[in-house]
Design a protein that fits this description.
By secondary structure, the protein is α+β, with helices and mostly antiparallel strands. It has twelve helices and 18 strands. Strand 5 and strand 6 (114-123) form a beta hairpin. Helix 10 (366-378) runs parallel beside helix 11 and helix 11 (402-418) packs antiparallel against helix 12. The longest helix is centred in the middle third of the chain and has 70 residues, at 247-316. The termini are far apart.
C-alpha cells in the first residue's frame, strides 16, 4: 500500500469514529481533523496552526489558563511512550464552559523520533455536571444534622451518614450491612414491615413519629420521612430514610402541656374567686338598691311633711308680715326641694343600674309639653331669671317617652337655674322635622372649664368651678343615659363665664 493510500485509509477510519480526531505534524500544527472535530464546538478548527481554536481559552483543573506554548499532553507523549490523557476546560466565546477529555498518542518515524501526534477530544460536560451534583449531594448528606440512611428492600443498611452516627452512636462501618432492626425496639418491629410494604408500593412515608434505639440502648423519639429509591429504569430498589431526633421538641411540648395545665388550674381558681367576688358584688348591689329605694321612699314622707308644715307656717304668718319668718320659710322650702332632687337622682340612678327603666314611647305635642315644663321650672327660678321657649320646624308632634324627656329637661333647666346668676336669660329651643327632634337648653351661667369637659357625663362628677353650689354630680349622667334609652344622644358647648348650651338629639321616628 502506498503512503497516499495509507493516508486515505486512515482518514476514512477517522471519519467513522464518534470522537473528534485531530492529527498534528512534528511542529504540533494541525494538518487533519474529522467531521466530529468540526462539529464538536460548532466552529471549524484552524489547520496549519498550533492554536486550533484561537477564540477559545483553555483552562486546567485549577482554572488556570494554558497558553499555546505550553502543551502538557503533547509534551508528555514526546518523551514518554504510550498514550496520555487529561481533562481540560474549554471556555467558548459566549462564556460557557465545556469539559473535554483529551487523549493523545505520538506518531514516530522509522528512527523512533517524534513525528507528530493524534489527539482525540471527548465532550464530558454532562458527566462532569452529574459528578458535581453527586459530589454536592454527598456533601449535603454527609453534613446533615439529621440521620440519612439508605436501605434495600430487605431492610439491609446500604448507607449511613455522620448524622446517623451522631444520633444512634453506630459508626458507618458498624451499621452498613446490618439490618435496620439494629435501631428498632423489639416492640416496634411491626412498623418496619408496614414501612417496607409502603415503599414497595411506591408510597412515601412523611413525618412519622416513633421511637428508635441507640447503640447505648437509649430510646429516643424521632420523626421519620422515608422515600422509595429507584434505578435508571424506574424500578424500586430500596429506600432513603431521614430520621430527625425530636427529643428537644418533645421536651418543649411536655413543658408547654404542663404549663398550659398549670395556667388552666390558675384560671379555674381565679375564675372561682371572681365568681365569689361577683356574687358578693351582686349581693352588695342588691342590698344597695334596696337601701336606696327604701331610703328614697322613707325620706320623702317626712320631707313632704316638712314642706307642708313650711307652707302652713308661711300661710299662718302672713298676718304678721314678718320678713324674717318669710325668709326662713323660703330657706326650708328650698332645702326640702334640693333634698328631694338629690333623692330623686339617687332613685333614678338605682333604677338605671338595676335595669328597671322601661321606655314607653308615645306621640304628643312637643311645644305644649315644653311650655308646661318651662312654666313649672319658672317657679323655681332665681329673682330676675327669665325662661324663654321657642319652637321651629315642620311638625309639632313627636314620638318619645314623656316621663324620661321631662326628667331630662328638669335636670338641664335646674342646672341652668342653679349655675346662672339673678336677672339672666334661660332659653329652651326645640326643632322638629321628619328625621330628627332637637331640644337645646342655653344659659348665661358660669360655664364649664376645658379640663372638666371630657368627664362631664360621668357619675358623681362635678366641675371644678361649682364652689359651694349644691349638687350630686348625677344629673347629667342620668340625662345622657335617658337620652340613650330613647335612641338619642346629648352634647354641649360651653365657655367659662359666658354660659353653656346642652342639646338633645332624637331620631324621628325613634330607633326600635
Amino acid at each position: 500500500m502506498t503512503m497516499t493510500e495509507h493516508r486515505i485509509s486512515l482518514l476514512n477510519f477517522y471519519e467513522q469514529l464518534p470522537v473528534a480526531v485531530y492529527v498534528c505534524n512534528r511542529n504540533d500544527e494541525l494538518v487533519e481533523y474529522n467531521l466530529a472535530a468540526a462539529s464538536l464546538f460548532g466552529v471549524t478548527p484552524l489547520t496549519g496552526s498550533r492554536d486550533w481554536y484561537p477564540s477559545f481559552k483553555i483552562l486546567d483543573h485549577e482554572g488556570h489558563q494554558i497558553g499555546t506554548g505550553h502543551r502538557p499532553v503533547t509534551n508528555a507523549i514526546k518523551t514518554n511512550p504510550g498514550s496520555h490523557r487529561r481533562e481540560l476546560r474549554f471556555r467558548l466565546p459566549d462564556g460557557t464552559d465545556r469539559y473535554i477529555l483529551v487523549s493523545s498518542v505520538a506518531i514516530r518515524d522509522g528512527a523512533g523520533d517524534y513525528d507528530g501526534a493524534i489527539h482525540t477530544l471527548s465532550d464530558i460536560t454532562a458527566q462532569h455536571s452529574s459528578e458535581s451534583q453527586q459530589s454536592l449531594l454527598a456533601a449535603i448528606v454527609d453534613s446533615s444534622e439529621d440521620a440519612i440512611i439508605g436501605k434495600d428492600l430487605d431492610g439491609n443498611i446500604t448507607s449511613w451518614n455522620r448524622g446517623a452516627e451522631r444520633i444512634f452512636g453506630y459508626t458507618a462501618a458498624e451499621a452498613i450491612g446490618q439490618h435496620v432492626n439494629l435501631i428498632i425496639p423489639e416492640e416496634r418491629l411491626a412498623e418496619e414491615t408496614r414501612i417496607i410494604k409502603a415503599i414497595r408500593e411506591g408510597k412515601k412515608v412523611e413525618h412519622f413519629e416513633t421511637i428508635r434505639r441507640t447503640k447505648a440502648g437509649k430510646a429516643i423519639p424521632i420523626s421519620l420521612t422515608i422515600s422509595p429509591v429507584r434505578d435508571a429504569s424506574g424500578r424500586i430498589t430500596g429506600a432513603s430514610k431521614i430520621a430527625r431526633d425530636i427529643t428537644r421538641q418533645k421536651q418543649v411540648e411536655e413543658q408547654v402541656i404542663a404549663y398550659t395545665s398549670h395556667l388552666e388550674d390558675m384560671v379555674a381558681q381565679r375564675t372561682a374567686e371572681l365568681d365569689q367576688a361577683l356574687q358578693k358584688e351582686r349581693e352588695l348591689g342588691q342590698l344597695k338598691s334596696r337601701f336606696v329605694s327604701m331610703a328614697s321612699h322613707e325620706f320623702r314622707t317626712p320631707l313632704s311633711s316638712v314642706k307642708l308644715s313650711a307652707s302652713l307656717i308661711e300661710k299662718y304668718a302672713q298676718p304678721y308680715a314678718d320678713q324674717h319668718i318669710a325668709k326662713h320659710v323660703s330657706k326650708i322650702k328650698n332645702s326640702v326641694n334640693d333634698l328631694s332632687a338629690i333623692l330623686g337622682d339617687f332613685l333614678s340612678l338605682e333604677k338605671l343600674e338595676s335595669g328597671k327603666i322601661n321606655v314607653s314611647l308615645t306621640e304628643f305635642d312637643l311645644p305644649e309639653f315644653c311650655q308646661e315644663t318651662t312654666g313649672e321650672m319658672q317657679l323655681l327660678a332665681k329673682p330676675g331669671q327669665q325662661m324663654v321657649y321657642r319652637h321651629s320646624g315642620t311638625s309639632d308632634r313627636v314620638i318619645l317617652d314623656q316621663h324620661l324627656l321631662k326628667n331630662c329637661l328638669h335636670n338641664l333647666l335646674s342646672n341652668a337655674i342653679k349655675y346662672s346668676g339673678e336677672n339672666t336669660l334661660i332659653r329652651l329651643d326645640t326643632e322638629l322635622n321628619t328625621e330628627e327632634c332637637r331640644l337645646s337648653v342655653a344659659d348665661q351661667g358660669i360655664g364649664i372649664p376645658e379640663a372638666d369637659k371630657p368627664h362631664l357625663f360621668s357619675a358623681f362628677f362635678r366641675a371644678g368651678n361649682t364652689g359651694t353650689i349644691q349638687g350630686t354630680g348625677l344629673g347629667l349622667n342620668i340625662v345622657a343615659r335617658y337620652a340613650s334609652l330613647m335612641g338619642g344622644s346629648v352634647d354641649f358647648e360651653s365657655r367659662c363665664g359666658q354660659g353653656t348650651t346642652f342639646s338633645l338629639y332624637f331620631p324621628q321616628p325613634p330607633y326600635q
